[in-house]
Amino acid sequence: MFKKATLTINAVSVLLILFILSSRAQSAELKCTYVASMGKPFLARLVSPYDISDVKISWLDRQTPLQVTRGDGKYEASILLGSDVRDTKPGIYTLTVSYFERGRQWTLHHDIDVRPKSYPVQELKLPQAMVTPPKEAMARIKEESLLISNAINTITNERHWELPLKRPVDGIVTSPYGLKRIYNGSPGSPHRGVDFRAASGTPVRCAADGTVILTGDHYFGGKSVYVDHGNGVISCYMHLSKINVLNNQRLKKGDIIGYSGQTGRATGPHLHFGLYLLAHAVDPMPLFQ
Ligand SMILES: [Zn+2]
Q1: Which of 108, 141, 165, 202 has the fewest CB atoms within 10 Å, i.e. the most exposed one?
Q2: Domains parsed from the chain with CATH numbers
Q3: Distance between Cα 189 and ligand 1 center (Å)
Q4: Ranges for the M23ase beta-sheet core domain (predicted)?
């Protein structure tokens, strides 16, 4: 009789210990690549069977909160990340994810090897004033670069983007992302977007749902539109002949943001499309499929 009672107490203790251990165990899983090519975007997904909230990620010195969605009995927070052919050095970087689940805060660290990628060289002949802007244009360029920097550094909590992104025009790629550019014989900044062939007046469509955060006629980009898609994802459309949207306007994927042209530093009519992930300019092409 006495022996049986002891056994029962032991069984309860074992269950209690198992319960404590399981409640401390990590349950959310971070699904993300361990190797990424320079400039190529990738998706990081935090997936949990439990309700997660207050999800934040930190990558290449930038942070953003993530929106949590629920489907198939799972909770998920996704983010598009990448490295910038101009600014990131190859190496191993740590992606840090923190979140709240089952009454406590959790943190995950995930190392990603950003490997070098060699991009082709392109020589361009441009009017010298566009390569070395005249002194009187400097104040304007400085002012515009501040506006652009603010736009691409925009971080908003609500996620509006979905994959795949919408290709903004149907034309072929005339200059891919990452080209090492030589302007009139002098090396310049690499190409941080994609140029699509587009005859003047071709409708240019928004890559995903979002909000217009900047429009303007800029020295380099010409008539330009910047759209915030949430959680640090920003798209931009340059050299337009006409802008069709207003600041703060809400857009749906596929809406016409303007018409292509050759305003600003352009050698002919085309669309320059840029995609910024936490302010890092990445190659958007893999995200259109
Ligand atoms: Zn371009």
Answers
A1: 141
A2: 27-115 (2.60.40.10), 121-288 (2.70.70.10)
A3: 11
A4: 190-284
